[in-house]
Amino acid sequence: MRMKYLARFIMWLGGWKYTGDIPREKKAVIISVPHTSNWDFFWGELAFLSQGIPAYILMKKEFFFFPLGILLRWLRVIPVDRGNKDSHLVAQMVEEFKQRDSMYLCITPEGSRKKRKKWKKGFLVIAKAAGVPVYLGRIDYKEKSCKVGPLFYPTEDVDADLEYIMSTYHDAHPKYPENFSYGE
Q1: What is the DSSP letter of 59?
Q2: What pLDDT shows up at residue 85?
Q3: Under a CB-based contact definition with an 8 Å cutoff, are residues 4 and 49 in contact?
């Protein structure tokens, strides 16, 4: 409970706020867009903490060195071996959803802070396989706000889903606009 108020205080000091509703579903994938800076993790995590949203985040395993690894695990960050294509990440995440009564898995579909024309589809594949919806999260540096929503239910057409989702971010305000692409 104290973390919630500490996170709100830090956000207030930085001029940031959480907007939108709290997720109603007990399990969901939350995408965090845009992702052009390491600050996205900081403000996004504070937003989740400030609202009591127990979000799990995936991060490349290279960040899990002492003492940072201890802090990251405490913040519900799951290490990912991006170099191992046989890691079966989808199956692992489906199992994580099965083992918990409540879980929000936050993923940055851009997969990098560098500009990409196409986002990664893994968040849709995970959501579909786990039978959970996707919240379209947003970090807005112009408004200094973080938001979870609206809700999206994946269909059988992953490519069409991804194209639609990318189009909903045409008005995004990233920290570094030159590093953001919504497929334009």
Answers
A1: E
A2: 62
A3: yes
